[in-house]
Design brief:
NAD+ binding; alpha/beta; three-stranded antiparallel beta sheet; histone H4K16 deacetylase activity, NAD-dependent; metal-binding; binds adenosine-5-diphosphoribose; about 325 residues; about 15% strand; transferase
Length: about 325
């Protein structure tokens, strides 16, 4: 994705939601690029919306630039910052949005080439998107790994820690350490104050006579397998997009993302110019030339779009309040 950023020229014949409905009916290889905006109706904040975005909240708590929370160096320096904030974006795994249901409808109609999601809430899986149709560009909370021994566990193993704002330590590291001869010198027995040894009559000799503490080995810290700034995207992203999808795609729909973070933000500029592009979001976007921009709540827009496409709508697609 290193090629120069080139502005794609708009195709003039597509402009309206009815044009978009016609494209949905006729195109078979639809690439859908999604962002945090498709989960906000579930109460999961997006990142950059003024006032409600996660980064505004992080800045209000005095953490400087919001993105610092997701810098891998920052996490390794002090994981407690991430653990104190991540509860806000931890998925509510019990329901998905009508926009997720729209992705599932495309898949059911055999029109979904691939959903490239930047979201880490893993709700695409809950909505029934097949793993073969899904690329989680920024990883997800589905699993978590130890920063030290790389041990991988299901993400839900650390959800309680995240919700309790408690840094999760690697249980395998702890287990291995418990089996090793302790780095500490053997505990010295303090002269018993009484003939009966009680639990706390043994002194901790990790501080030797001149009081220096031993540098004891520490267990690794668990990190959700989400892609932090400074980390590589999964290889599947590049392989699938560069080697397969971009040669076969015949319609691109971008939903609920500000397209501010590379390399996802550059994908549209590496697609054939003749492929129609549709953008669905609350706010318009200037740095990519979309043929059609449908502005509003994504749940409502996709609902209306499917109505005009003449597709029978499943109840999950009904937006709140409609
Ligand atoms: N309906 C339609 N659009 C919405 C809705 C909604 N209900 N809610 C929010 N939006 C729009 C916002 O107006 C904004 O344009 O979705 C977009 C969300 O943009 P961001 O908050 O920047 O989120 P996203 O684009 O997914 O961020 C990309 O940045 O920090 C990194 O790793 C993080 O994956 C994330 C990446």
């Amino acid at each position: 994705l290193q090629r120069a950023y080139k502005k794609r020229q708009k195709l003039s014949q597509y402009n309206t939601i009815d044009d978009a409905a016609k494209l949905l009916r006729t195109k078979k290889n639809i690439m859908v690029i999604t962002g945090a905006g498709i989960s906000t109706s579930l109460g999961i904040p997006d990142f950059r919306s003024q006032g409600t975005g996660f980064y505004d909240k992080v800045r209000a708590l005095g953490y400087g630039g919001g993105e610092d929370v997701f810098q891998i160096e920052e996490f390794d320096r002090d994981p407690s910052i991430f653990y104190s904030l991540a509860g806000d974006i931890l998925p509510d795994l019990k329901r998905f949005s009508p926009t997720h249901a729209f992705l599932k409808l495309l898949q059911t109609k055999n029109r979904l080439q691939t959903n490239y999601t930047q979201n880490i809430d893993n709700l695409e899986e809950l909505a029934g998107i097949d793993k073969s149709r899904l690329i989680q560009c920024h990883g997800s909370f589905a699993t978590a790994s130890c920063r030290k021994c790389k041990n991988q566990v299901p993400g839900r193993v650390i959800f309680d820690d995240i919700r309790a704002k408690r840094v999760a330590k690697c249980k395998r590291c702890i287990q291995v350490m418990s089996k090793q001869p302790s780095a500490r010198p053997p505990l010295k027995k303090r002269k018993p104050k009484s003939t009966v040894l009680r639990k706390n009559d043994w002194e901790d000799s990790s501080d030797d006579d001149n009081g220096t503490a031993y540098d004891l080995p520490q267990p690794g810290i668990m990190k959700p397998d989400i892609t932090f700034f400074g980390e590589k995207l999964p290889d599947t992203f590049f392989d699938r997009f560069m080697d397969e999808d971009r040669h076969a795609v015949d319609l691109v729909i971008v939903i609920g993302t500000s397209l501010k973070v590379a390399p996802v933000s550059e994908m549209c500029n590496h697609l054939p110019a003749e492929v129609p592009h549709i953008y669905i979001s609350r706010e318009p976007i200037e740095h990519v030339n979309f043929d059609i921009q449908l502005l509003g709540e994504s749940d409502h827009v996709v609902f209306e779009l499917c109505k005009r496409t003449g597709w029978g709508l499943r109840h999950e697609m009904l937006p709140e309040g409609l």
